[in-house]
Amino acid sequence: MRHWKKSLMAVLVFVLSISLIACGSTKPASQTPDNGKPADNAAAGANSLAGKKIALIMQINLGTFSAQYIDGVKEQVEKLGGKVTVFPTDGDLAKMSSNLDAAINQKFDGILIDHGNAEALEAGVKKALEKKIPVVAFDADIKVPGVPVLQQGDQKMAEMTLDKLAKDSGGKGNIVKIWVAGFAPMERRQIAYKAFQDKNKDIKEIAAFGAASQNTALDTQSQMEAILKKYPNKGDITAVWAAWDEFAKGAARAIQQAGRTEIKVYGIDMSDEDLQMIQDPKNPWVASAAVDPKDIGRIQVRYLYQKLHGDQTPDTVVLDPVFVDRDQLPKEQVSTAQLSQHVKGWGGSQQGYTDWLKQAEQAAAKK
Question: Where does the UniProt annotation place the signal sequence (predicted)?
Answer without folding.
Answer: 1-22
